[in-house]
Amino acid sequence: MRIAVDAMGGDFAPREIVKGAVEASKAMPHDIEIILLGDETAIKTELAANGVSASQRLRIVHTTQVIAMCEPPAQAVRTKRDSSIYRGMELVKTGEADAFLSAGSTGAMVAAAIFVLRRAPGVKRPAIGMVLPTTTGRPVLVLDAGANTDCEEIELEQFAVMGKLYSEAIMNQKDPVVGLLSIGGEDLKGNDVTKRTLERLRANKLITFRGNVEGHDLFEGVTDVVVCDGFVGNVLLKTVESTARAIGHWMKHEFKANPLRLLGALCLKGALRSMKQRMDPELYGGAPLLGVNGTVIITHGASSHKAIFHAIRVSVEAVKNNVTQKISDQLEALANNSTTPPPSR
Amino acid sequence: MRIAVDAMGGDFAPREIVKGAVEASKAMPHDIEIILLGDETAIKTELAANGVSASQRLRIVHTTQVIAMCEPPAQAVRTKRDSSIYRGMELVKTGEADAFLSAGSTGAMVAAAIFVLRRAPGVKRPAIGMVLPTTTGRPVLVLDAGANTDCEEIELEQFAVMGKLYSEAIMNQKDPVVGLLSIGGEDLKGNDVTKRTLERLRANKLITFRGNVEGHDLFEGVTDVVVCDGFVGNVLLKTVESTARAIGHWMKHEFKANPLRLLGALCLKGALRSMKQRMDPELYGGAPLLGVNGTVIITHGASSHKAIFHAIRVSVEAVKNNVTQKISDQLEALANNSTTPPPSR
Q1: Which residues have CB under 8 Å from B167's CB, separation 6+?
Q2: Which of B232, B260, B267 is the closest to A232 by Cβ?
Q3: Rounded to 5 degrees, what angle do the CA atoms B231, B232, B237 make?
Q4: Is the separation of the CB atoms in B255 and A268 below 8 Å?
Q5: Which of A65, B44, B72, B236 is buried most deeply by CB count within 10 Å?
Q6: Mapping DSSP to helix (H, G, I), strand (E, B) and coil, where does residue B107 land?
Q7: Tens digits of per-residue pLDDT, B15-52?
Q8: Which are the contacts of B51, defined by CB distance < 8 A and separation ≥ 6?
């Protein structure tokens, strides 16, 4: 199995990316190869810094271009054919790699995946899945986390099916329960699209559907999958980060206010560390792009070597479990069933 | 000045509502009267429990009906004319009260406000404003927090103007900066409606506009006002609550893991209390319903006496500062200017 990794993507590339790849290469079975895409000289330098050199299990594919975070994605993908992102997708398309992951521009990753790999049969729009911890210990998958704004009900329905399959295959959830993100638990609550989507999800035989869920329910493990459009999903996930960061800020401020509190904070050092870990998005292995013909994982722009390590681990799982094929099959089935008229509006 | 309070609305009504009203009555200048709406016997019992009886400064208006949280708002408002919510709005309409506040059904409050008080001249749809703390110490006003799903750009533009005026008048912000909630700081980011709204807000002379803001920026005080539709706003605010609650849950769990940590938590008791206070939504005095002909404040369903106390305080401020009239004037001006064609789509 071969996992392609964009060595040039993210705020701390290539240093953290290469470091994470080296760690993964050491930790994983010998039949797993990692392909680092990017500037060969820079990657070699980083490999050396980690005490290794390029090998069959840690190969370099030299690329000359980089897509920056701020570039308009579609244009960048069309014009930068020798960028690490474009070439990574090509490796997946030609079968030279089984999966591709990057901490680079999310927009460019989505655009390149659609452009090079194409949507899986039946899929209208691919979605980004994002895993969050819950207080029950069972993580929840939120999708779409930002690939598509302005979704129609058929798209949200596909997200529900893709989310269910990913939750089963990668998160080991038996018969995952799907919820539709809305502004109240009752069927009447929601906006125009969620109200129409609710009917479709109730009628969908491929999923176990719980109905509307709210922001309140997010961390309580009420459902295993939460479906929303990419605008709402992105706002939601950034709000979670923002809230956690603000609480951390206030905690630091309060915990330093006097010597007694400093002592208390010292006693709680381990507790604070394990809290941080519990909420650490890097442990969840990045966000899968679901609904394209290939396994694609997008990690946070600020990814450290640890995030890359876990993203490689998750990529391997996704390939092993054949998630991409399963999604195609089920969505094709869904598309074929949908030739009967959808529920009345 | 007379503030009408729905004694029957909220999870802990009438007990907490009456208690909060009694506390406010004691703390406030003598020219401020509080009118409690609801079942007279129940209110009298609660007044007695707080060691007071009805008086000119703490009057009872007996009502016979209650609108439950789960009732479809529009229908409830049309049929329950002797409910505390409907009667409260009537008191504002007739001038017998200067403001009305309730911890009851948000939907019913919005419906009753529109039905009885009517939209302010020029206002398309009223919005609920919600105040959040930030790490800079300057709170931020998010609107709409849930009155309207599926907003058009002209509505979001009106929210921006209403938010600016409220921030100035009640939050004492000089020249408040307005941001549009989106999924990235760049102008290209957003959904169809936010992209169209961005152009309008840039062209709007009544506000100081910063451009797109993200969920990431929420607690960092990047802007004083954050504009979004009520679906997104509601998801956002519930996500903040949910995240804070989950962190609290994990903290408790970790802090009890061993005796050393228990000792640490003991040393930090004061710090944890003041953190909780810092984030306590009850201190912010409820959410104003902006854009109707009258001062209306909606508080959390789980409001305690403290929330009611602060909501009464904020109501008094809003009346004193003539917020309702200011909003009408400016939105009328905006509506008149908008007879020129809006920027091209």
Answers
A1: B141, B173, B176, B224, B225
A2: B232
A3: 105
A4: yes
A5: B236
A6: helix
A7: 999 999 999 999 999 899 999 999 999 999 999 999 99
A8: none
Residues listed for chain B: 345
Find which of A181, A267, A274, A278 to mutate to test the B interface (most B CBs within 10 Å of its CB). A267
Cα–Cα distance, A272 to B180 (Å, whole number) = 34
Distance between CA B232 and CA B209 in Å, rounded? 20
Contact, B167 vs B176, CB < 8 A? yes
Give chain A's mean pLDDT: 91
The closest CB to that of B149, out of A191, A218, A275, belongs to A191
User: Of B201, B89, B290, B191, whose CA–CA distance to A231 is shortest?
Assistant: B191
CA dist B65 and B104 (Å) reads 13
User: Could you tell me the pTM of the whole model?
Assistant: 0.90
ipTM score: 0.89
Query: Which of B72, B183, B260 is the closest to A146 by Cβ?
Result: B183
Q: Whose structure tokens read 């409830």?
A: B76
B232 touches chain A (CB under 8 A): yes
For residues B272-289, give the mean pLDDT: 83
Distance CA B190, CA A150 (A): 9
A183 with B234: Cβ contact below 8 A: yes
| Residue in the structure block whose two tokens are 């409690």 | B36
Residue B185 scores a pLDDT above 80: yes
CA dist., res. A298 & res. A300, Å (int): 7
Do B76 and B67 contact (CB within 8 A), yes or no? Answer: yes
